[in-house]
Write a structure and sequence with these properties.
alpha+beta, binds methionine sulfoxide, six-stranded antiparallel sheet, 6 strands, globular, 4 helices, Beta-Lactamase
């Protein structure tokens, strides 16, 4: 196992050098817990985000029949269950699309796991047409995420499910 090599100054250059390394890290491993753990660690190491992790759709005793349950992550402790349609994560699950939140205080229903989180991106992991999990990244700064993050993180999440 080699260390990550992070070349480049711009966000896009860092993603371009990082994503192939993450792909090679996960391509021979079929266990999603192991892969989600290494993806979280690699993104945290590369960008220094406040919180990076996964919530996984699991059966649950509620009207929807399932919830997002906390999976592998890097960062401070976080809420363990998120209902369908709730918060940024539950909305990404419901709409099956990436959500970029420039200022969490402006997102109605945002779930504040940490008061230091200021902006956020949530990218769904889709398997056979259904959302199986979401990647959630929080920043302690406003306006951290944009279409560059959306582009590379969606590519990474599609690789996780399509291989
Ligand atoms: N802010 C998220 C909750 C998860 S934490 O940020 C780790 C949300 O609104 O869904």
């Amino acid at each position: 196992m080699e260390n990550l090599i992070l070349a480049g100054e711009s966000k896009s250059e860092i993603y371009k050098s990082l994503i192939p390394q993450i792909k090679s890290l996960i391509e021979d491993e079929c266990d999603s817990t192991a892969n989600f753990a290494n993806i979280s660690a690699a993104l945290k190491e590369a960008f220094g985000f406040w919180w990076v992790g996964f919530y996984i759709v699991r059966p649950d005793n509620n009207p929807h029949g399932s919830s997002l349950v906390l999976g592998p992550f890097q960062g401070p402790i976080a809420c363990t269950r998120i209902a369908y349609g709730k918060g940024v994560c539950g909305t990404s699950w419901k709409e099956a699309k990436t959500i970029v939140v420039p200022d969490v205080d402006q997102f109605p229903g945002h779930i504040a796991c940490s008061s230091l989180s200021r902006s956020e991106i949530v990218v769904p992991v889709v398997r056979e047409g259904n959302v199986a999990a979401v990647l959630d990244i929080d920043s302690s700064e406003l306006n951290t995420f944009d279409d560059t993050d959306r582009h590379y993180l969606e590519e990474l999440m599609s690789f996780v499910v399509l291989r």
